[in-house]
Write a structure and sequence with these properties.
Protein name: S8 family peptidase
CATH class of the largest domain: Alpha Beta
CATH topology of the largest domain: Rossmann fold
Strand content: 15-25%
Structural class: alpha/beta
Helix content: 10-25%
CATH architecture of the largest domain: 3-Layer(aba) Sandwich
Number of helices: 10
InterPro entries: Peptidase_S8/S53_dom (IPR000209), Peptidase_S8/S53_dom_sf (IPR036852), Peptidase_S8_subtilisin-like (IPR050131), Peptidase_S8_subtilisin-rel (IPR015500), S8pro/Inhibitor_I9 (IPR010259), S8pro/Inhibitor_I9_sf (IPR037045), Subtilisin_Carlsberg-like (IPR034202)
Largest sheet: 7 strands, parallel
CATH superfamily of the largest domain: Peptidase S8/S53 domain
Pfam families: Inhibitor_I9, Peptidase_S8
Family: Belongs to the peptidase S8 family.
Radius of gyration: 21 Å
Strand order of the largest sheet: 9-10-8-12-14-15-16
GO molecular function: metal ion binding; serine-type endopeptidase activity
Shape: globular
Number of strands: 20
Amino acid sequence: MTEKRKSVIITFKAKEQRLDQGVDKVDIVRSFLPSGTQIRFFNATSLSSGASVPALNEHLIGYDVNQYESPMVMVRLTKAEIEQLSTNANVAKVEEDQVCHALGAPSSYLPVENQPSILAETVPAGVTQINAPAGWPASQGEGVRVAVVGTGIDFNHPDLAANYQGGVSFVPGTGTPMDDNGHSTHCAGTIAAALNGAGVVGVAPSAYLYAVKVLDSNGTGSYSQIISGIDWCIRNGIHIINITLGGSGGSAALQSICNTAWSKGLLLVAGAGHAGAPVPPAMSSVAYPAKYRNVIAVSVIDSANALATFSSRGPEIDLCAPGVNVLSTAKGGGYASWSGSAMACPHVSGAAAVVWGSHRFATNEQIWNLLAHHVDNLGALGWDTNFGYGRVNVDRAAEAFKPAPVVARKGI
């Protein structure tokens, strides 16, 4: 009987710290596999060249992260192979892969109104609530590249096609990042539905959209797929990564790639989750990767600026944004009103695109400072565990002439 394989994330030591400095990390992994084992490795370069991840039953596949700060290999191994690799002098850590899911609200917060009646070029309430239209004279996010990491994007949608610039899929057997779930198409519309005289309008209607598909048609994926997606974003000149998915457990590898992305100048924004209030209250209910310091964690408010009861909260919350009954694009060319942490997060990603468009030479740190400094305070004066620093205000941040003071990012 063939021993069952499980997905693992292998983090290697920096090359100068390895015992076998002249041997590639992929070859180190291969050396622990039985003779004749066929394994096909992908990386950001090969996938950008048009390769697609095959169905899982076709090959033993792996992904190679060629980041100096985060050298990793993701692959499926047997228990014996994992034990051997864990003791290898070139390896820093081997951890089991974890499952992640698209972030949505409990069913009690949906009824979801599918295909609502809308007027041409409707500005959704959430876009107005964060004062985005007032900031458009300064910038509509022109030239700012925003990657939506999730279920893909319906790139044929009439409100998204003009701004869609391409993408990649890490879901085996899919080939393209077309959205077969609908979750990330809704997020993409909130970020950058075009100002085209029809449908709805996003927060940054001229920003460039990229689809990074890491979740399947059920909205399920893995940490290794998130890591692969973030690696692709680093390699492909993305400015902002919108992450509307989460898991319940921490991962050294996931945190490492988030840190690497931030250090390379990318801005990461993630939904805090929909776990509600933590128990006990002093704890946190924020999901990963939003929990990490180098990821902006966004909690959910409603149209009355009240915290949604389903919203996660805790000491890692950075900002809040509208996420209840949010009108946006739906796969198949239509429109829908959805609620959830995933609906709040893209408001902040879109806001960041507008602000970056009006501050072309700013760093990710400076964009964060502008977003966090120019907020509308909703809770206790200053920062709190429900609303973070407050509700993002696009106009004030986009129109700011002076650099904002340094604002501490929350997280572990």
